[in-house]
Design a protein that fits this description.
This protein is an alpha/beta fold and 413 residues long. Helix content is 43%, strand content 25%. The radius of gyration is 23 Å and the shape is globular.
């Protein structure tokens, strides 16, 4: 089979590795529009379950990924001038550049052709049996057929930016800072022996109130270094090079598609779906997409059946992560609701932010119920039963309320 993979990120490179391992006679080319080594993104996170899957799929690249990763097993939250710690599952961080370097090297070992600086369209690949759009949320291949794919982007509310720092956090670190214009917060985690990722987020009114919408990159970084001085410990923040346009503040866009394939073209990773960065699953889900697509192609002789099986499998597998991402994003969009709690209680609810029940229960009451549920099985069952039902009722209640809101808005004074 002749395979053209458009996009040299983790999903595209890993798919090329898996297909080359399955059948060395496959003719596989990865087209990446950027130059080799020019990636931006600081570090990515993943958890042990993914590492176990990588070892099962391709032990050689998995060993290299594990050896190049750092680990943590605690969460730390700074709220105003107070600090609280909680134990957690072992997390892993690896530099995005290093991850791509490992995957590209392994793909070459297996005979995959990597063409960097190669920007292509579907029309440029007439001889390919399979074309994989792994070119991200802005996928040109998907956009060309957006009507067929039924692409939909939903904008989040908060503003965020990805930065790096030489402050090496020893835990997954949160810091919440109150300003005269509202709260601003960061998520920090290490990804190698000398660097950490630092994602900073705030509400839109805080973004404009602090002047972040009007300042240049140096002034923005200086302001953020001042606000988070207590966690940066004198270390600077680093943004994208000025030649790349600096570090953009964006709102997160949740991408969904009605279908993921068209003829011999199939969507992979962020070209097919996105999940809010606050659950730290983007790279994991992309790699799992690659595993599922390779499995489907191996298990079905007929290409349309293989692509349909891949889509069914991944849509089902993604449901828990997509639900968690929606609730996590909402938790941060309603952050002041939780920051009135004592820090240890707020941090406990931070860990519960994926719960569909949490938005409908007063935070302090939820905290008490959650502690009690840990001791009483009946309460655990009630919590599991009630949360999804409340969440499912929201669209119906909003739809019922919409005519009344519209009538009120159109009523003459």
């Amino acid at each position: 089979m002749k395979v053209a993979i458009v996009g040299g990120g983790p999903a595209g490179l890993y798919l090329s590795i898996l297909l080359a391992r399955q059948d060395p006679t496959h003719d596989i080319t990865v087209h990446e529009r950027n130059a080799e080594g020019s990636t931006y993104g600081w570090g990515v996170t993943y958890w042990r379950a993914l590492l176990d899957r990588l070892h099962a799929q391709d032990p050689e690249s998995a060993r290299a990924v594990e050896q190049s990763s750092v680990r943590w097993s605690e969460g730390v939250a700074h709220v105003r001038d107070r600090l609280t710690r909680q134990p957690g599952d072992v997390g892993h961080g690896i530099g995005r550049h290093r991850l791509l370097e490992i995957l590209a090297g392994r793909a070459r070992e297996l005979g995959v052709r990597l063409e960097f600086g190669s920007e292509v369209r579907a029309d440029d690949l007439p001889g390919a049996d399979l074309v994989v759009a792994a070119d991200g949320v802005h996928s040109a291949l998907r956009t060309r057929h957006a009507g067929h794919f039924g692409s939909h982007l939903a904008e989040g509310r908060n503003r965020y930016v990805w930065l790096g720092t030489t402050r090496v956090f020893d835990s997954f670190t949160f810091a919440f800072v109150e300003t005269g214009h509202g709260w601003i917060w960061c998520y920090g985690y290490p990804y190698d022996a000398g660097h950490s990722t630092c994602v900073i987020e705030c509400a839109p009114e805080t973004f404009t109130g602090l002047g972040l919408d009007r300042q240049g990159e140096p002034d923005r970084l200086a302001l953020l270094e001042k606000l988070f001085a207590h966690v940066l410990d004198g270390h600077p923040l680093a943004g994208r090079p000025a030649g790349d346009g600096g570090s953009p503040w964006a709102t997160f866009r949740t991408l969904t598609n009605r279908t993921w394939h068209r003829g011999n073209l199939v969507l992979l990773g962020d070209a097919a779906h996105t999940t809010h960065y606050s659950i730290g699953a983007g790279t994991t889900l992309a790699l799992e997409d690659a595993i599922a697509l390779a499995d489907a192609l191996h298990g079905h002789v007929d290409l349309p059946q293989a692509l349909a099986a891949y889509e069914r499998t991944r849509r089902q597998a993604l449901l828990p992560a997509q639900s968690a991402a929606r609730h996590s994003a909402r938790w941060y969009e309603n952050l002041p609701r939780y920051l009135q709690l004592p820090p240890e209680q707020m941090f406990a609810l931070l860990g519960q932010r994926h719960s569909p029940l949490l938005p409908y229960v007063p935070p302090q009451l939820y905290y008490r119920l959650d502690r009690a549920a840990g001791r009483v099985e009946a309460l655990r069952r009630l919590k599991r039963w009630l949360g999804p039902r409340l969440a499912r009722g929201v669209p119906a209640r909003e739809a019922a309320a919409k005519p009344a809101r519209e009538a009120a808005a159109n009523r003459p004074d």
